[in-house]
Every structure is written in structure tokens, then in C-alpha cells.
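Model: You mentioned two targets. I'll fold them one after the other.
Researcher: Yes, keep them separate.
Model: Target one:
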Amino acid sequence: MRTTKNSAAVDAKVVERGFAACRCCRLSPLCQLASEHGTSGSIVCRGRRLRRGEVLFREGDAFEALFAVCSGSIKTVAHDARAASQAIGFFIPGELVGISGLTARRHTSDAIALEATEITEIPFGTVSEAMDSVPALRRIVFQILAEQLAHDELLLLPLVGKKSATERLASYLLALGQRYAARGFSSTEFPLSMSRNDLSNHLGLAKETVCRLLARLSEEGLLSLASRRVRIHDLARLTELAGQRYAA
């Protein structure tokens, strides 16, 4: 199994218990810098626990805070004029949720916990006020937002272009592995916490198609699935199926 240097497989107990520490929170640089400059009193960092299926925010709710996933996972769901739902994103530990609501100051989707999940919340109004007095804080906020844009582009990668069903699924698994690797974990062994319904909806495929493709990839020895976790055994072959160039 190929992993990035210093990375490790994402252990379920680590995700459930230990990943919620401040050192793993994407918003911790804000808290740290605010503390160094004596403005930590104005930036109040709150931890929240969500049960599986619990809603963090709804489409149309006012954008009032930055949310970082510390453990567990969250899906975002948008609705069209006919009330049809579309899973537009899945967020893992270390990622921010709901940034798209910053422009209009309204959330553009629902955010729902896929499992027991811990998040960190910082009211955005207090961050804006602190940015006025601490220029370095402004730079960190801009850096976080820029990284979020890059993250969103990675989310779209499996969906752009005229990809076949196999290419879409393979591309998504590779992109998800890259996101875990960016946070110090294995790029080839990680949780796959969303349901097959949610995954197929996100990829624009039928559930039966996704289930059939996962079974085929497993039978061919490219990956294995157990307890909502995936382990990629043949990264080169999966990359080829995604229509991408494999870099050993």
C-alpha cells in the first residue's frame, strides 16, 4: 500500500476520539494568533457535537460563523425549484463547511452530519472585527479562504468533463484520498462515510451503477471495502481508470 511520507491510515478510534484536538482544527491558527496579539477574548471558539443526521445549518440561514470539521463528516445538500435534492459535497476532518455563504451572507445548502461529528465554530463577526486591528489575522483568513477555493476545485474534479461512470467514481476516490493525505493521513486507506445513495447522487449516477462498480473494483483487486472504509490496493490501475496519469 502506497502512502505519503509520515502519513498513517485513518484509524476509526482516532477519528472518533482524538482528532477533535485544537492542533487538528483548521481554525486553530486564528485562535493562536488572536491569543498572541491579545485579541483572543473577542474571538470565541466553540466546540459542538452533532448526532448522525443532525443539521448544522439550513439553506437560507444567515451566514454567521466559520465551521471546521474536527471529527466525523458532514454532507452539504442543495435543493432546486422542484425540491429535488443534490449532494454537492462531503467534508472530512480538517475542512471548512459553508464558506460559500460568505458572499451573500446566506447559506446556499443544508449541512448534515453523516455520523457522530464534532465541529469548531467561530462567529464570523468577531473575526471581522479582530482583522481590523491585527493585519496578520487578515492574512491568515485570506489564506484559509484561498485554500478553501482550492479544496472546492478538488471536489469538482470528478464531475467535470464528459467522464464515464467508472472515471467519475475512480476520480472521486482518488480525490478523497488526496484530501486525507493533505491532512497527514493515508491516501489509500480512509473512511467512506456517505451512503451509496448520497455518493451516487453526488456523482450523478444511479445507485445500482455505483454499487456495481464498487463490487467490480473489489473483485478485480483494485480496492476493498469494509465497515464504511475503503482501502486502495492498486493505485496505478485506479488512476488509469480515472483517466489520469499515475506518478509513482
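Model: Target two:
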Amino acid sequence: MEINKNISNEGFVLVDKSVGKTSFDEVYVAKKKYHQKRIGHVGTLDPFANGLLILALSRYTKLFFLFDDFEKEYIARGVFGESRDTDDITGSIIQKYEDDSIPNQNDIENLLIEKFSGNIKQMPPIFSAKKVNGRRAYKIARSGDIPILKEADVFIKNIELLDYSYPYFTIKMSVSKGTYIRSIIRDIGSYFNIGAYTDKLTRTAIGDITLEDASKYDGRILGIRDLFKNIKYTQIENDKHKSMILNGNKDFLKYLDDEDIKSEESKYLFLFDEDDRFLAVVDNIEMTYAYVSVMPNL
């Protein structure tokens, strides 16, 4: 298989999604801007939310798994005193509460430490993309039924109260994949028996990639080494070896020197050609090696 030397407009793009747009809206705009039919994104942001959205163009849509272990950082504002069916500002009010049990700042800070730090169980919102018997929960909820959801195990690495002036409270948190910020805000209100919903939500980081980076790069298409600063990689110059890689031939792996791939600090080894074109990712699993993703010619 020959390498396509004319591959362009592929890689990653960092977007600062604005309030009111869907994540797909950003994908649609990018398809026109970068003249690409195949574009995906890392982690959906609801229309009422804003912040960092990572787009993948062309063959790079095969690389979403690289972000699976990345924590995501958010700043969210909650509103005490009401519960809403969507757990956010877009929903209908289902209950209002009296202001007779207003928590103070210490109450909230202590609750965050005791109940919302580390490994926790979380009930997703009924208006979510979780599947129940093959159907999306939000579609079941919109039809008038209540989806039966299961609690999920999630991890909250850091959480802190940034500001509090009843009924508004703002928290910053770093969480694992699959964590619903709306659920955290909702559950904080439930603990104080006064209800709460999310009215503002900003994603500020995915791993080490920040919202400020979206402004810094201003729509520039980024490669692997632009986005991942500390990866382990090697360059392949032998044409036969490059052809083997692009065909997913596992026999190539025996040509890798131990020092190339064995690393306690990096799960993956990235393979590039001599002109820095990305070829494949190799995973080191229990000292045996396997392709995770091969970037074949278009």
C-alpha cells in the first residue's frame, strides 16, 4: 500500500462551542470550512453549555479512544430552590421549595468533600443519551414515560466551591468520562432538600488540553504531536515496513526494538514516517504488542 502524500485537512481542531449551538452544529460548520465529509467530536456538550469541543477530521476519527482516560474539567453554576425534569435550565419545573433550609457556604463545602469526591455512584438524568432496552433515555422521557436507569460508577478527581450567593452556587470539578454534571448539581440540591438545577455549564479542559488552547490555535488543524506533548513515538523510514504497517501486518511488530515500545510511562507507541505523517498506534499489553489503530491510505 502506497502512502498518500497529498493527505490534507485531517487532524484535530479545538473549538470553543457557544451557548445555543449543538455539538453537531459545530461539526456541520467544520465540514464546510475544512471540506471534509467525515468529522466527529469528543464528548457531547448540551446546547445550553459552552466550552471546549475537540473535533476529529477524516482518519483521525479513528482515534477517539486516545481521550477515554482523560478527565474533563467543568465550571458549573447551580440554582437552589427548584427541580427541573432535565436537571438544567432548559427543562420544565417539577417542584419548587421553600427557603427554610438554606445551606451556608461551609455546609456546601463539607458536602462536596464528603459526598462528591473520589469514586461515587451517580444516577444519570432521565433526559440523557443513556440507552434503556435499546432506546435513548431522553426519547423515552419525551414520549411521556420515565426511563428506568441504573446508577453508574464515576470518579470525581477534584471539586471546589468557587462562589455562593443563594440561590446561585458555582463549582469547578474534574471528572471521569461518563460523569453528568447536571446530576451532581441536582444531587447537591437533594442532599439539602431544596432542589437544584444547572443553569450554566462550561467545559474548560479535556486532559491537558484547555479552553484557552482553542483560542490560541484559532481553528488550526492539529496533529498528534501538537495535541499530545509527551507521547512515545518512533519514525519508520523503511518502505517495506511502512507498507506492512498500513496493511495492519502484525509481522512488522517484531522489527520494533524493545527500547522503542517498552515504557512504563506511555501506554501507546505512535508510528510516523520520515516526513512526520502519522501511520499507526501500537499498544503495549502485558509485554505483547498489538495495533490499536492503523491509518490506511484514503
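Researcher: Noted. Anything on target two?
Model: The chain has three domains: 11-67+209-226, 72-206, 230-294.
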